[in-house]
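Lab notebook, bench 4. The sequencing result for the construct came back, and we need a structural model before the next group meeting so we can plan mutations. Quick request posted to the team channel:

Model the 3D structure of this chain.
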Amino acid sequence: MRVVATNIIALRALRRNKMRSILTALGIIIGVAAVIATVSIGNGAKSQVEASIASLGQNVITIFPGNFTSGGARGGWGSASSLTPEDALAVQNEISGVVAVSAEVRDRQQVLANGLNWNTTIFGESPEFPSIRDWRLSDGVMFGEAEVRSAGKVAVIGQTIADQIFPGTDPIGQTLRIRNIPFKVIGILSPKGFNYFGTDQDDAVVIPYTSAMRRVSRRTNLNTIIIQAYSPEQMPRIQQEITDLLQQRRQGRDPDFTVRNQLELAEAATATSRTMTALLGAIAGVSLIVGGIGIMNIMLVSVTERTREIGIRLAIGAHDRDIRLQFLIEAVILSLLGGTLGILLGIGASQLISKFNGLPVLISPWSIIVSFAVAGAFGIIFGFYPAHKAAKLDPIDALRFE
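Done. Here's the predicted structure in token form:
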């Protein structure tokens, strides 16, 4: 009963100064709202990056050219290419756990059809490309091994190409010219939209990699080799075996390739967003501390204002712990009230930011739980000293206080 009575007294004290109580809680409200909004925006950005990486396919390992030494100079990804179709074939035939492999050649060219033209990316790929990239066809079919062996003049186009070059018509069966070479359109890829880096994934033409090498770019090497592993658990082993195999094929020469898996690419892509989220979250956390200091300050003022009241309570039999508990409860109630309102404000602010700025937001239940718990903890931490000071007042001196 003593605890219940103490709670009632604390609530009455806060209700007597409603405006001051609300203003005291304002620091916690703003701090909690800032933390939730910041974490929500950061989580949204991270999820967008992860979705963009996932759109590249499942369990994907990529071999990049580069990382070579020539005359003492080292290069990075794409600095030179010695990857060959034979490398891709060796990976497919000699590494267990590999589901599919696509030799990849990329180039930018002007494409023409129906009196219209468009500058786009030409992807030279293997027939397994849609499977690796988890990219279905909305119409038509994918080319097969026969077209790869014969460097067939066939193409599968993205939705952007269909809209720009074949507006209002069915592209299937029509002719698309690349470097004035006629390619027959046999398939249309389903729309994927823009990725996190702002690239239109549908702005693409996919042809057999042999056709890209012999007819379009006229090169002998590949840009990259993309591999799909059977499961995520096997990716580290497959990655290491690919490295060993390609190094063996180069007969001890310095590595002129780099092998990266999808998890590493995702980690690199999300590192910046995580850093920014942590930085902004830390700044928002400072406002929570400032709010806690504000609570301590007001509670100290309250102790001074209510010194005579404390003296009366002590004189009629209240214990030190009752006084301490009363002021501690007042501080915790202020903090939890601020935490609750801050959570509502943070969720509302996140939704408004998403609506008006188009930024993705992902409200994490954990951020809400942690923010509420931290608000309560700050009430205890910053309310303890004023409560302890009130409990240690001498009843005689308190009764004399004016």
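The CA atoms of residues 62 and 226 lie 5 Å apart.
Will bring this to the meeting.
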